[in-house]
Amino acid sequence: MTTLTLETILDSELEKQTIEDMNQGSQEPASKADLRNLTVRLESKFDRLDSQMIKIEAASKVFITEKTDRLTTIFISFGAAQLAAIAGMFLAIFLRFS
Description:
Layout: H1 6-22, H2 32-97
Helix pairs in contact: 1-2
């Protein structure tokens, strides 16, 4: 079940009006009020897109930071394991020839 809020209803109505305003089949000339209303609706749409992009950018930064931290831990662990293996080989060689 979809819950409709006042904001959702208004956004839907603004979307319909913007589509109607952008309709190329209109034969009547636009008044200054029509242009102002279209500008307000388009500005509102860009503001919403801007806020969505800010949210996406923030989520991307968190994701990248988490993945970078995880990869750093993996590389450090892998490097430590390689160093331990090399030290073990040197110790084995030293013990064998001493």
